[in-house]
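PROTOCOL LOG
Step 1. Enter all chains and additional molecules of the complex.
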Amino acid sequence: MKLQDFIQPELVKNIINELRFYKDTATFMEVCGSHTMAIGHWGLRKLIPENIHLISGPGCPVCVTPSTVVDALIDLKDVTIATFGDLIRVPGSKQTLEQARAAGANIKTVYSPMEALDLAQREETVFVGIGFETTIPGIAYTIIEASRQRQYNFSVLPLLKLIPPALHALLSDSEVKINGLILPGHVSVIIGTKAYQFVSDKYGISGVVTGFEPLDIVLGIKLLIGRLHDPGIINEYSRIVSSDGNTVAQTAISEVFTTGNAIWRGLGNIPDSGLDIRPEYDQFDALKKYNITISEEAENTACGCSNVLKGKIKPLDCPLFARLCTPDNPIGPCMVSSEGSCAAYYKYER
Amino acid sequence: MLLITNMKDDKITLGHGSGAALTRSLIHDVFVERFGLKQLDDAACIDNKLTFTTDAYVINPLFFPGGDIGKLSVTGTVNDLCMSGSEPMYVAASFIIEEGFSIEQLKVIADSMQKAAIEAGVKIIAGDTKVVERGKCDGIFITTTGIGILNDSPPLKAENIKVGDKIVVNGSLGDHTVAIINVRQNLGLNPPPESDCAPLNEIIKILLKTKKLVFARDATRGGVATILNEIYTDSGLGIIIDETSVPVKESTSALCGLLGLDPLYMANEGKFVAVVSDLDDNSLQKLQAHKYGNAASVIGIVTNEVQGVYLRTAIGSLRPLPMLASDPLPRIC
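Step 2. Run joint prediction.
Step 3. Record the structure below.
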C-alpha cells in the first residue's frame, strides 16, 4: 500500500460522520509531537465533532529537555557540538545554540548520530543525545560503532527519555483528565504495543497506536471511542507495529544503556524515565568526560509549557502564546521544535 | 512586521538568511530606511524602462545533480529580472575565490555560466575576481547583477491583483531543496533527485502573451508559501491553495514526510508563482508542453473569503499557510 491510500478523503469523511453518533464529551491525548503536527497539518481538530477534544502531550523530545542543557552546551569549550536541528533555537538562560554559533561556538546540525561520529574523525565532537525510543537505537548503535572504531574523540550527552514512565507520571497526576491515549506510532515500532499494557490495566483507559496519515488518526479516534468502557490497547498501525516491537533495536539499547532518572521539562524528575550510558562505554559518556551536570531549571513563571505538556491547558490558553512567545522569539520550548504543541498551534490553529 | 527580537546580542544568525520573516525584518530594519528604498521587488524598475537586480550565490555543494553554482548564478538573476515582466539582457559576475580552489573546477563553473547565459539569451559582459585566504570563503562565492528591458508592458505589480485571480505554478515544488539535502547530507537517494535550476524567461512569456499575467515571482528561498504570504501582505487579499492541485513529486513527498519538511516552504530554482486574471486551457497546455512546465497547474485562487493564506487540505479542511519566521528545522523523529 502507498501512503496515499491513507489519505482518502471520502473514507476520512465517512469515519468522521460515524464519530457524530457519539454524543458525550471525550478527551484524548495525542502523546507524540508528530501526531500533533499531523493533526494540525490536516486540520483535523476542526473536522471532528466538537465534543471530542484532542489535547497534546509530552511527546516532543526537544520540548521536554530542560533549558539548562543549552547553557551546559554553550559552556563546553573547544569541542564541536553536533545536534539535531530542532535544538538550535531553544532558548537557554542567555543564548540559543544558534546565537552561540553566531558568536563563534562550534555547533553543527546533523541529521543522524553517525554523521557526528564522522565529524569526530577530524575534531573532538559531542553529540547531543536527545530523543525517545525512536531515536535511541541509532544512538546506541553509533556508540557501539565508536567503540569498535576506538574513536575516543566522540562522546554522547545522554538526555534520552522513555515514553512509558512519562505516561505513568502523567496518568497518576490527579489533575490530568484523559479518556484515552493516541499512542506514538514510531516509538511503538521499537517498544511494541505490549509496553503500554499498564495504561489499561492500571489506569483503566484505552490507548490506540496509530499512524500519521488522516485515515490512521480518525480511525484511531473511532477505535478509542469504541473502547471507552472496555479499556485495552489497540493497534491501528499494525502495518509496521507489532506486539513485541523491534527486538534487535531493544538489544542494542540495553547493550549500551541502563535506565536512570531523568528531568523532564514540565513534568520534573521521573524515576527510571531516562537512560544512562553503561560503565563499559564510559569513554563515550560526555557527562563524565566533561564533568557536566544538568540542573533543574528555574522556568519563566509565565510560560505555560509545563501545563501544555501535561495537557492541562491548550497553547492558546497560555498568556504568552503568540504575543510574547512566537517561533522567531520562543520563550518556552513547545514553541521551538516543529513537533512542539505551541509551534503546531501557532502554525496551524490560530 | 516582526521585530528582530532574535538579535538580542546584535549578531547575525543563519536564520537571518532564510528568506523568511527574519530576513525581511533584517532588510527593513537595516537597509530600507538607510537606503531610502520605496519598494522591495526581485528586481528594481528604472523609469519603467529597465529592470536591475543583483544576487549572491554561496551554495554548498558547488556541484549538484541538475546544476552547479555557475548555472545557478545566471538563472537566478535571469529569473529575478523576467518575473517583473522584463526581457533579461546583460549580466555582470563577480567571483570571490578561496586560495587553493581548483582552476579546472573554475573553468567548469564558467562553462556552466556561459551555457546558461546562451540558453537564457543574455550576455555576460562585466565581472570581477578576488581571491581570499584559505578558510575565508567556502570554495567560491559568485555575485551576479543583471539588467533587463521592459518592452512596452508596464512592470508587474502586486497592487494590480484582484479577487478571483488564479495562482499558477509551472511544476513540482521542492525539487532543488531535495537535490541539495541529498548531496549535502549524503542520504544516498537513488536515483539522485535533480535540482530544477532553470531559466524561466521563455516559459513566462507564454503567460505574458495572454495579457492576463498580473504578477509573478520565482519561488526560491522560503518557497511558494512565503511568496504567497508576501502577495497577501502587499495586496491585502486572501489566498486559498488547493492541496490536491499542488504538484509535488512522490519522492519529494516521501522525503519531506521523513524529515518533517513541507514542499510549500522549500526552495526552488526553476519555479514561478504567477497570479493571472484568467488562464484558458490552451495557455495551460502551452505551459505544460514547455520543457520547464510539464506539471504546471492552477493551485489556488485570490479571494476575500479569508484574511491571509490558507490551504484547503486533501481531506477538505481549511488551515493557515503562514509566513515562517526562519528556516524550517529538520526534526528529531
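Step 4. Note key features.
The helical segments of chain B are 21-35, 69-82, 103-120, 175-184, 203-210, 223-235, 250-259, 281-289.
Chain B has two domains: 23-150, 158-320.
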